[in-house]
Write a structure and sequence with these properties.
By secondary structure, this protein is an alpha+beta fold. It has a single domain (about 5-385), classed as Chorismate synthase AroC (Chorismate synthase, AroC fold). The protein has helices at about 30-40, 50-55, 115-120, 125-130, 135-150, 175-185, 195-210, 240-250, 345-365, 370-385; strands spanning about 5-10, 15-20, 60, 65, 70, 75-80, 155-165, 170, 215-225, 255-260, 275-280, 285, 295, 300, 305-310, 320-325, 330. A hairpin with a 6-residue loop joins strand 16 (about 320-325) and strand 17.
Length: about 400
Amino acid sequence: MAFRFLTAGESHGEALTAVIDGVPAGLPLTEADINEDLARRQRGYGRGGRMKIEQDQVHISAGVRWGLTLGSPISLTIKNRDWENWRSTMSVGAPPPDAPAKTVTRPRPGHADLAGAMKYAHHDIRNVLERSSARETTARVAVAGVAKRLLAEFGITILSHVVEIGGVRVQTLEIPWDEIRRRAEGSEVRCADPGVEQAMIEAIDRAKAAGDTLGGVFEVVALGCPVGLGSYVQWDRKLDGLLAQAVCSIHAIKGAELGLGFEAARRPGSQVHDEIMFDKDAGFHRGSNSAGGLEGGVTNGQPVVVRAVMKPISTLRKPLRSVDLSTKAAVEAVVERSDVCAVPAAGVVGEAMVAIVLAGAFLDKFGGDSMDEIRRNHQAYLEYLKGW
């Protein structure tokens, strides 16, 4: 059973919508399971004024009855509160004759504005920026609430934390993953190192004062994945490739690493590969996790570790040079309401995409039409692994 989804909606449109197919019947699911992560996505030092307007809440309108999924498509809707201020500008029908024109013709460097306008023959960039906005990730986080709920039934949990903002970097943390999760969730920048956290906040403040923006790096970790998710037999079934594509599909993400990532290129093999050990109690295990829980496109039982590089946001309060689409005159790029730094929020979106990919791989491995069937398949596989 394939886990798949589509999202629809514009940044200042009436609502964001997602439809999910492939969720088995019998999964306990409530709106509260999804709303917690929607709230987490809205937090973070350096966010803009939009987050003071929106209070994202999901409405499940199909695919669930009496708290259990039906096996049919699930429909999710998140209303945009800011829609009230944009009714005429974003109206589905023709706007009132006296509605103010808000045509955008000054593309922002680094954004989809110009390339999107040229591709779709739009002469008003608002037709591009409304859909290419990172507001779309709200729907993805909602979808991932369902994916996480599925994974949690089988002991798979996901966390994220920020490891770099604007060149301020966290060194290796020798603490348990649960402590990293606890510290990150208590931090304004979702950083698990209290000393570095303050330096990150100061860097964001300096960028804000300069009318600039900052990017950074976040890390997503999946705990509890069994050996055998993904496959080495075809390129499009390799789990590391699927994770990299999913993470790089997030707005402003320009790079992904798994395990040691690019650092592996700087070390000899003896300092990269995770040695294999065995004992009767633990079975096969590793003394390190440089591979990030993935070998040959397959999970090896270790935590799955994915990092992503987020570029600085494209909207600057002191805008960069651009060219007006209508007049071809040199101008400053348009300034849309935006964040100074969204790396903490991007980590939550990173969790979402990792959860969605892992849910798909899990159902590919253990799939059935109902949770009871999947539980039988999963339990039988765990028993099989004990024989190795």
